[in-house]
Design a protein that fits this description.
InterPro entries: PI-PLC_domain, PLC-like_Pdiesterase_TIM-brl, PLCXD1/2/3, PLipase_C_PInositol-sp_X_dom. Pfam families: PI-PLC-X (PF00388). This is PLCX1 protein. By secondary structure, the chain is an alpha/beta fold. The protein has eleven helices and eight strands. It is 40% helix and 14% strand. The strands form two sheets. Strands 3-2-1-4-5 form a five-stranded mixed beta sheet. A three-stranded parallel beta sheet has the order 6-7-8, with no helix packed on it. The radius of gyration is 19 Å and the shape is globular. The chain starts with 21 loop residues before the first helix and ends with a helix.
Length: 285
């Protein structure tokens, strides 16, 4: 999976989202030439387009959706500190076009946050999802195996983390995301190990390898960036990933999401974990 999938196309000239700390918004009004580059380098978690991420092997996409303040249109954007250039409509169409080319591929689109969305905008977005993906949408009553998806022609699981999804059978509820909210990779791993002790959820769930820097840390490390932080931590984090296992057992993982998904063979290492599951299912040890 890719954490904050759409941050590759953040718009440095867009408004700052309402959820950003107040002090940052105040400073931005005074010296945007300083704050905007800083926000961008600490908000960007991906550098690859949707198609490039799909081609790399990403199948879970973290889509944080918002409406720009004072925007009177139905346009929605993705958000991480600031808004994206690409609209939600365009991104969904890109997914649909790629899936047309590869009918045996399936993706999970985890839609969340929904900052500024009214009931009407939720309805508009849900209607757009149904129009764009149509019969490719896998209903939440379905048993999800690749063989079953291929048989029935389903390619898209939409996780919609809002009560607006409850009356729509072709939308799934929000997928739990294990987020440490820490800047230290060792603390992140400790958190994930702690979560594992409680046992895996019954359905899909995500172990997030993403580090999080608070405002105070960013201000005291102005010469750094989230990318630099992530790349420094990846050898340690991937060493942990290699020791994990998929499957139904209590401490097994499901989806693993990360930043800058081409780093440290992230995708290939996560996919390789499935070989452990295959050996178990065939009785090979």
């Amino acid at each position: 999976g890719s954490h904050d999938t759409m941050s590759f196309c953040l718009d440095i000239n867009s408004p700052i989202v309402e959820s950003v700390p107040g002090i940052l918004k105040i400073v931005d009004r005074i010296i945007p030439c300083v704050t905007r580059p800083m926000i961008l380098k600490w908000s960007r978690t991906q550098e690859d387009s949707i198609v490039a991420q799909l081609e790399a092997g990403i199948r879970y996409f973290d889509l944080r959706i918002a409406r720009k303040k004072n925007d009177t249109s139905n346009n929605l954007y993705f958000v991480h500190g600031i808004y994206t250039i690409v609209t939600v409509q365009k991104a969904l169409e890109d997914f649909a076009q790629w899936l047309e080319t590869y009918p045996k591929e399936a993706v999970i689109l985890a839609c969340s946050h929904f900052e500024g969305l009214t009931e009407d905008l939720h309805n508009h977005l849900i209607w757009s999802l149904k129009i764009i993906f149509g019969s490719k949408l896998c209903p939440n009553t379905e048993i999800v195996t690749l063989r079953n998806l291929w048989k029935l022609g389903y390619q898209v699981i939409v996780s919609y983390d809002d009560p607006a999804a409850e009356k729509h059978q072709d939308l799934w509820s929000g997928i739990p995301y294990w987020w440490a909210n820490r800047v230290d990779p060792e603390v992140l791993v400790e958190y994930l190990e702690y979560k594992k002790q409680g046992g895996r959820p019954g359905g899909f769930f995500v172990a997030g390898l993403n580090l999080t820097a608070e405002t105070a840390y960013i201000i005291s490390h102005l010469s750094e960036s989230l990318k630099k932080l992530a790349l420094q931590s990846y050898p340690y984090l991937m060493n942990w990933v290699q020791k994990q296992s998929p499957g139904p057992s209590k401490q097994c993982l499901n989806i693993i999401a990360g930043d800058f998904i081409r780093s440290e063979n992230f995708v290939s290492e996560v996919i390789a974990l499935n070989k452990k599951l295959r050996r178990t299912n065939t009785g090979i040890h």
